[in-house]
Amino acid sequence: MTNEDRGLNLDLDRRRRLGMVEAVWGADKTVDQIVAAARRLCAAGETLLVTRVDEAKARAVLQQLPALRYHPQAQCITMGKGMTGGPWQCLALLTGGSSDLPVAAEASVALACHGVEAELIADVGVAGLHRLMARLDHLARFPVLIVCAGMEGSLPTVVAGLLPQPVIAVPVSVGYGVGAGGHAACMGMLASCAPGLCVVNIDNGYGAAMAALRILRTLPIENTEGQASQAPG
Amino acid sequence: MTNEDRGLNLDLDRRRRLGMVEAVWGADKTVDQIVAAARRLCAAGETLLVTRVDEAKARAVLQQLPALRYHPQAQCITMGKGMTGGPWQCLALLTGGSSDLPVAAEASVALACHGVEAELIADVGVAGLHRLMARLDHLARFPVLIVCAGMEGSLPTVVAGLLPQPVIAVPVSVGYGVGAGGHAACMGMLASCAPGLCVVNIDNGYGAAMAALRILRTLPIENTEGQASQAPG
Amino acid sequence: MTNEDRGLNLDLDRRRRLGMVEAVWGADKTVDQIVAAARRLCAAGETLLVTRVDEAKARAVLQQLPALRYHPQAQCITMGKGMTGGPWQCLALLTGGSSDLPVAAEASVALACHGVEAELIADVGVAGLHRLMARLDHLARFPVLIVCAGMEGSLPTVVAGLLPQPVIAVPVSVGYGVGAGGHAACMGMLASCAPGLCVVNIDNGYGAAMAALRILRTLPIENTEGQASQAPG
Amino acid sequence: MTNEDRGLNLDLDRRRRLGMVEAVWGADKTVDQIVAAARRLCAAGETLLVTRVDEAKARAVLQQLPALRYHPQAQCITMGKGMTGGPWQCLALLTGGSSDLPVAAEASVALACHGVEAELIADVGVAGLHRLMARLDHLARFPVLIVCAGMEGSLPTVVAGLLPQPVIAVPVSVGYGVGAGGHAACMGMLASCAPGLCVVNIDNGYGAAMAALRILRTLPIENTEGQASQAPG
Amino acid sequence: MTNEDRGLNLDLDRRRRLGMVEAVWGADKTVDQIVAAARRLCAAGETLLVTRVDEAKARAVLQQLPALRYHPQAQCITMGKGMTGGPWQCLALLTGGSSDLPVAAEASVALACHGVEAELIADVGVAGLHRLMARLDHLARFPVLIVCAGMEGSLPTVVAGLLPQPVIAVPVSVGYGVGAGGHAACMGMLASCAPGLCVVNIDNGYGAAMAALRILRTLPIENTEGQASQAPG
Amino acid sequence: MTNEDRGLNLDLDRRRRLGMVEAVWGADKTVDQIVAAARRLCAAGETLLVTRVDEAKARAVLQQLPALRYHPQAQCITMGKGMTGGPWQCLALLTGGSSDLPVAAEASVALACHGVEAELIADVGVAGLHRLMARLDHLARFPVLIVCAGMEGSLPTVVAGLLPQPVIAVPVSVGYGVGAGGHAACMGMLASCAPGLCVVNIDNGYGAAMAALRILRTLPIENTEGQASQAPG
Amino acid sequence: MTNEDRGLNLDLDRRRRLGMVEAVWGADKTVDQIVAAARRLCAAGETLLVTRVDEAKARAVLQQLPALRYHPQAQCITMGKGMTGGPWQCLALLTGGSSDLPVAAEASVALACHGVEAELIADVGVAGLHRLMARLDHLARFPVLIVCAGMEGSLPTVVAGLLPQPVIAVPVSVGYGVGAGGHAACMGMLASCAPGLCVVNIDNGYGAAMAALRILRTLPIENTEGQASQAPG
Amino acid sequence: MTNEDRGLNLDLDRRRRLGMVEAVWGADKTVDQIVAAARRLCAAGETLLVTRVDEAKARAVLQQLPALRYHPQAQCITMGKGMTGGPWQCLALLTGGSSDLPVAAEASVALACHGVEAELIADVGVAGLHRLMARLDHLARFPVLIVCAGMEGSLPTVVAGLLPQPVIAVPVSVGYGVGAGGHAACMGMLASCAPGLCVVNIDNGYGAAMAALRILRTLPIENTEGQASQAPG
């Protein structure tokens, strides 16, 4: 066994422990590392999610393993059928602008790997507040809301002030100047005056999906999409 | 109506909209502002939670309104019986060290205002990992985990890597040097390699409680404390 | 002439050049420096505004110069009748919470020194959005809006997305953790997705007032408050 | 309707609400997204402004929609004749150095879309103060001044100390070391000792233009370029 | 010899090596440490400068050593007659506002310890530029200029753009919000567009004095105060 | 068992696992928490080290437990005889200035609790480099060097460039302006060009001591100071 | 001798002084500078380590000096046989994920140049804690542990809480958002609650290796991996 | 006259006012802007210095104006013979490592434009302190020292502690991790414990040269290179 092999020590126990498929952070991995991970997980009968894979790297990976599937907007590679045992409810995935779509897509792919559907409600940022207000009744039907926003990142605060469900805020690295890198959005979401807003790392669509999954797993299975199992008292 | 009166425009609709009692951020309010808020909410038949009230200010408030109750460790004032409609489940409230207790206490008081009980599991930080490992089976029974930690803030990451429930991480402003103000803990929790960790602002025990409440509200009411309604598949 | 005297070199030309009364930043001045400034300006027939004077320092100043007036909430000292030549219009002064009142009060006193009235509309933060929505028609009548907010500072963004007037955003140092010192609010206001939002320094009520004054000065005098317009006395 | 379509939810109401044409942040949009936005706005009889479009992306967009116009220095795409209802006055657009010209050009294009002309007065930075002093009388005739500066960003402070009009400061990301990214300029403009200076985000020429537009809209229409309607008292 | 004694290891060689008297940073020293340092230097026939000593600590030190002298505005203690070998020229010490005087005073006392006189020209900040312009001819006569400024710190940039001498910029911790602690001033001075501006640490009046001393030492001794020995070509 | 009791969950296993006495971070603990910790450890036959205890709190603790010992310069409380099994070698503890002594004292007390002696070599900062150069031969005899420095923190870099032993750098929060809080020193030590310099948190004298202890434990115990020896089991 | 030559002033004395081979920071050097350094060291009979050399630059260097060896994962060039006098013990080199391998490889190559072998134990991050726990007995046998981790960087804290040896923590620039550049990991390692953790700069595999070498040099040389041994002269 | 022309408003008065040639910051200028500036200055009989011009841009400029000269290491373009009126003394230009050479070269070219020669003493960083100590006597002969250093930037502190002349510190953006961008070096130089160290912006070789020129201009002309005109008393 070479040092190169030792570099990959996949957490094959994750599905049993956390109920999640093994996910690989692709940004700092070589094509060879990703291919090796896919082969090992495949051999173990596992599914796979690789995030942050740009198009060139994905092409090189799929050349060796054509059975994998690449999702270009989400920059993700998936393998296998994902987890079953669901379906749980559908959740809502909001974005402030269309520039936030890649992050929302990463969340959507990650949820799909676990048998959860996400309804995308994009471009409802607070600069044109009527777009959100017109959808409040529709939004009230989802058990969990993931809200992605860049720039100053006000959208999750406004949503969490209007609706009682769990709201997972995802700061997005869309912005410039003091808003560059999503840091203003991230700070604003953490400092939010809305009670009970939860935040994940900038651009962390995958993390928001897994946080939502942890919540959905606590809910009873139901038949109808978008009906909250338990309304606030 | 004077300018002074206009300064207080309480959100009496919050209970209906979000299922939460009105909460007042006490740190930047005068004794008169807090007393006025309490009187108005009392007149409206509402309950009240005031956070971040130091002992001197609390004494001055209670001198005028002896029916209020002060919680010294949590630095909170409460009024009335809190919300009914529960009880929902008990959740677990972990801290890395005993210095994190004030933040945990704020969360605990805020949950109690909404009829939710929190079991405190303190001083289980990763510097002595056996303290956490010995409690894993016990922790597995709670539907939601709130984890408070200062310094480098590793505890929520370790917990979220071992257990499948929703984990709400609270960075605590215990530390010095590069860890001063809880910023290292906050950054570490956001940057966590554990999938699906949610973060609230530094020292935001109240926010963590409300985030947990949003989750618990989606669950079916049950009888036994500490039994998850729905295990991961 | 001693060095101590040289330390004070007041800009007696400011009224002619900018149409503003001399304003003194009181936070880093001694009682003696403030008294000397007041005496010199009084001798020159000028009015005076001293900002950031805490109660103890103000008492010591007024003991020597009882004709001055102290505004405790605004932490300002004023002298004389302010500028005439007006009246211009009234503007609206919004705050997200009652903790923002001291900053709004500083703006209000500074405007009053220049013959401008400010209508305070406090505690309309986005966590309870209905409070703002109910006042939109009223707000539409003012030529300029000053909006003060702490925490994540979303309010100016939401206001500027709904209304077409000049909006001057004032971040307020109300907050904790990542929101401490008003920095998250300041970054969020600068990074705002609302078009044409202007920002002044954190807690800079005086600056917001002078920015509003610069705008109001360009307007024709009018008769009715809040219409393309003529200001009150 | 696909998810891809949902990604674009243009604010067609903006012109009615704020008197501004829909503006699209082009930096994080694909060619397809920009083309789709242009088509939809065109169909709605709207005009369009797309900012932050580099030359390659602009070429790809114009290949599909040759009626659009690209402004290379401003990195903007415009469509249609812009808003009418004017002309309001001309305003002055100052820059500290010739490196600030792209930001000034973005402001200029955005103003032109709304029927406002901007007179460019470039390269008058404080390192050669005589260049500014020689133009003071000329500058005094404009109702609003937009001042762009990088490095330490002193120019808006000096201008606002000399002239009574509204001054909108635009920090520019020209600089290196501690001045990299325009952060030193931005902090300096916010911390300015000049009373009533307003600041927008770094490089935000579009925002400065919209802030100026909000002010100009409050002014009566007049015939002569550059004559302030109302002098300070 | 105890550990306590070892804690003080004064640089008695500094005068020979650098031509400067031993200076002690008083802020983090106890009364006993300062007294011990003074005694040892006195025994060695040296002079002494202690900076950053607040009034209470100074009183306690002088009670034990009444021959020392306290300078309250400069917060310095001095001992002995200072260095001889001069006098070199007088230099000019400018401040933007009267709040900068304590920093200027520290520089002034430090220079006096080395036989150099400083002419204070206070309160000539750029918000009222005429105050500086009226003194340009006078300033042109000094061989070195020390310029102290807080807030946005533009003054040294403007001075260095107008005058050819060495300019030492001292950022001052006067300010609030983004200008708090003097950081905006410091960044602005470093990022300055004026060629050849030198910067010392925030509030470092002592350091500016020593930098000036290093320059003055390279000049030929002369008789008349304020006449540059060598004009630019 | 009350919540208050649960707050303290001491790591009684630390001595067996790491060979270190239980250390309590005293800064955020109440007098009651410290007393309870001391009682429990005493009952378990353990020793105790409490760091960051100011004089007032220490007095209150010792009033209840007079057998404890307070070290005022180090701000530490100790109990019992410390660990035996030593003595190992003496190590050298350098400081740049006498202001760094409290941090060095914390390291010294922590080492003494584990039977290790530290020789203090204070005030050898690089501003007077001859003080260090004169001690190089002496320093060469110690197996480990702990080097404390504030301001720009150059001393550990210079030491590690001259001597081959393990060097543990401790940034000290002595400084002001950009050096405030020890951050400049900390960054400088991490960015050091000297090969193999190790850094602990700002002011972390205890951490440096424990890092040194981990190294010394690997060495053979010896009899004479500064010569190789032999470690315990 | 030209200026170009003067640019290179190698520290040929380093081996004698510190027992380390000359190491050249390759990132900011040209091909010519690296070649010149290699030639001069070769002439002096020295060995050489060049770090941070990307593949293209390395190819250009090796074209001129084919006797050099390039290590692609470590991005290092080595020359000669390295130092002899060993072998000392093998140490353990842990990584949190496979993305940390390049940093670990730099450490490994640097140690190999000094005759020290490093056993790589990769991908044992805390998100799957069982991977570490299963190796504790094996890890206990190494005299020094180097632990590389990105993201939140918890691994060194957990390791140092479980094992008594010297632990050198290396933050790795693997991460995004608030974890970008390794800053969250670096802050977390410095702020660690584990006693005696030492930290080097982000990605500083070379520095960690040299810190380990300083420690290993104090040990007696031995034959069997992981047992106390004896150091060289 | 078009807007494009207005973009260039050269400070033709600079030579008269400050005794410096016009310098153009080339990094954010187009080839056309640089060519236009050169033509205008040439027509005015002026010389020119353009800094921060990469090789490709320089080639394009020189194709149009072959009389200009490009300095590749310094990344500067010069035109004409530079200023006469000298020669003043030679000064010393030190660098910590060979990676700092481009910054030193920028300073060297800028000085040469003003008739001042700089003697380069490169690669004398504190990691190998003997290289500096061996040159102290030689360094003592220069009237001004410019010291460039990256990483932790200790070199200027050590130099200013050993030698009495004016020392201008230039932080260099050589480093990584916490030292990336030269920020650690910059903070360390400002926070320096050495008395009277002056600092310019990161990588600001030009600024250091102009600061030195301001000092040299105050000195009497002399004949021999490297002899200080006036020793400290």
UniProtKB/TrEMBL annotation, chains A, B, C, D, E, F, G, H:
InterPro entries, A to Z: P2CMN_synthase_LarB, PurE_dom
SMART domains, per the entry: AIRC
An example Gene Ontology biological process: 'de novo' IMP biosynthetic process
Gene3D superfamilies (alphabetical): 3.40.50.1970
Domain PurE: 89-221
NCBIfam families according to UniProt: LarB
Gene Ontology MF annotations: hydrolase activity
Protein name: Circadian phase modifier
